[in-house]
Design brief:
Radius of gyration: 19 Å
Structural class: mainly beta
Shape: elongated
Low-confidence stretches: 12-51, 222-227
Strand order of the largest sheet: 1-10-7-6-5
Strand content: 35-45%
Number of strands: 12
Distance between the termini: 53 Å
Oligomer: single chain
Mean pLDDT: 75
Helix content: under 10%
């Protein structure tokens, strides 16, 4: 079900008066593009697994909208782009519970005159169950934040993502969301704002992501056995 994240008019108007001395709140944000990973990293690869080559996200485009200027920058926050539950005291595939990755997103916007900026987003999630996952379903949580570009957060909202694996090890889910950003006047363009997306992760998960390490969503599943030599 599509939900609408609305930035308050007061927040949008106050953004124009923010001091440039504020510490940037969006360091580490990366914009994913089809066929590219959001940032190079070192993957925890298991014996017998093939290398993790970039692949184009399986995500349908959005209907194009008319806009009087540029759209807001829409990015996936690198520190929260992946969700990896780990048990025990060792980083290993055998200790992986539920996993998730925001594989990609597409967006478009529309605004004319002094109308609010309406941004349509479509996000592609890849989810997985590792050896320590308990049960056949999991409700993941992710967030969308609207910021004044490279400065303060104007609005942030959390969303639940219920997933039923139906006895499978992985699942793919597409989510659509709408963001409405009021403008102070007709000269305020979309490139004054950024929209960030990420999983609701613990500090330990964020540090794991930040280190460049990762597991694929099917971590811990048995690798395919090569055919015997003839």
């Amino acid at each position: 079900m599509r939900r609408v994240l609305k930035v308050s008019l007061a927040s949008a108007l106050a953004a124009a008066a923010l001091s440039t001395a504020l510490v940037p709140a969006v360091a580490g944000a990366q914009q994913t593009r089809p066929g590219q990973s959001s940032r190079p990293g070192q993957e925890q690869q298991q014996p017998g697994e093939q290398s993790d080559r970039p692949r184009p996200p399986r995500i349908a485009p959005l209907r194009e909208r008319s806009a009087a200027g540029p759209c807001p920058y829409v990015k996936i926050l690198y520190d929260a782009a992946r969700y990896v539950e780990l048990t025990g005291d060792r980083v290993a595939a055998a200790n992986v519970g539920y996993t998730g990755e925001i594989e990609g997103l597409v967006s478009d916007c529309g605004y004319m005159n002094d109308d609010p900026i309406t941004v349509e987003m479509r996000m592609l999630f890849n989810l997985g169950r590792g050896p320590q996952a308990q049960g056949d379903g999991r409700t993941y949580r992710y967030w969308i934040a609207v910021t004044e570009r490279n400065r303060a957060i104007l609005a942030k909202e959390y969303f639940d993502l219920p997933v039923d694996f139906d006895d499978a090890q992985t699942a793919t889910v597409t989510q659509d969301q709408t963001i409405v950003i009021p403008r102070a006047n007709a000269t305020t363009s979309g490139d004054n704002f950024e929209i960030l997306v990420g999983f609701d992760v613990t500090p330990q998960m964020a540090e794991f992501n930040r280190s460049g390490s990762r597991f694929r969503v099917n971590a811990g599943t048995a690798a395919a056995t090569p055919p015997p030599a003839q």
